[in-house]
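Attaching the record inline, Q. Sequence:
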Amino acid sequence: MSLTDTIKLWDEGITAADRQEWLTALNLFTTILEPSSKICFNIGCLHLLRREWSQAEKAFDKSICKDEHLAVAFYQRGITLYKNEKYEEALRDFVEALNRLRGNQLIDYNQLGLRYKLSTCQVLHNVALAHATMQNWDKAEEALKKAIIFKTEAKPNYVDQALESVSKRELFHLLELPAGELFRPKRKVVAQLEKQDFLGEAKVVASIIDKDAFSGFAPLQPQAPDHIPEKKAPEKLKTLEGVPHRVLFNFLPSNKQELEVKCGNIVFVLEKGEDNWARVTFNNKIGLVPCNYLEPLEAEKGEKSPPADIPAPPTESAPERPVIVQDENLRTNTSQQVTGSSKKNKDHSVPVPSIVKVHFKYTVAIRVKPGLSHNELLAVISKKFQIPEERLGLSYKSQESGELIPITSEVKMKSAWTEVRNQRLTIWCKFLEVVALYDYEVSVPADLGFHEGDIIQVLAHVNNNWLEGQCNGNTGIFPVNFVKELSTADKNNSVM
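Structure, as predicted:
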């Protein structure tokens, strides 16, 4: 079956579904010989409307086999299994749909042709319902509390109603897609299916034959000699294929098609799909990475061409290098530069930049003006590592005691500048630490699980509601409202 015939049947099936002629639409979709994942999804939805559970389950199976990243297909199959009273299998599908969301608040399928937004809050609601149906009331309550984190003001209060029902040990309603919401073909593609005659019928405009009424194509006529084209300038080939992007978070693959990358890696995006996944190349390997884990690098604007006229080298000799003398205030004065005739002495007080060596995940050297304030130095280091200032803590090592002293005020910063030797100052930089207020269980691979009282090292500030950190050798993201800043008293208690 040609692509044109497939799109025609797809469009006719959608038209019948809009008239709520479910059986007609189902017959049109099943006529397609090689259905795509979207067509199989539509077939499953129509069987689900007709309460044909086994046929709907098989259709969603095919849809998932053709596109294993389609979260809404797992969601719909979970609804089918729940209605068929297969509660454990339904729970597994709801969890798989949650994993495909990858920690996002929602996925908008409008660009793919489905006028629906699947949210994490909805999936967690149905996860809780599956637990409640199997009398696992504690797990149901836990899932609904997680759903509250993802709930926005625009969402209805079905989570609050479900929590109230769980407290009374009562079941609540199942969240489903609206009837008739199917994947639709693009309008531009459907509009181009009609055949159009762009040439029309041939006409004789001029002929050497009197009253020529020929309407076909004339024989070849002798042509003038072809113009010899000029030599084309050689094209510049790209040394690397793809667009460079920086990886924002660690990503662990769940299948062979996905590619493992870590925060800070530079990958080259070959293609971005409409399902929020990008095909990238890294270390001579090609695989899939979520688009929201990547950040484009700023490309250079144009190539700089060398100047047409290169100036001649200078004929005069270079001036004498001034003698640098270091005083107590870490200021240097340019020495006296004696001219041949006047021999006048001129004192210039010019600050010499200091080299600040910063120990972090890796060590960098930054050239700064000596005597910077704590906030100024923190801003420079924050910009260098691209990490918010409020998530960094600075320390310096005392030459006398050899201990690391946290820089918490401008007084401590001035003390740190007294440790400068040979215009060099060593600074230790670390992420701030937090303590867990409650237990947090992992629901998706990107999460970081911990128990109440665990000390977590903050690695990055994801957004206002989520942080990235390390705990017990694991790395992942976790909610802000599950932790608090680690105070000095908390540190002492953890040591004891």
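The domain at 354-428 is CATH 3.10.20.90 (Ubiquitin-like (UB roll)). Residues 3 and 34 are 10 Å apart (CA to CA).

More tomorrow.
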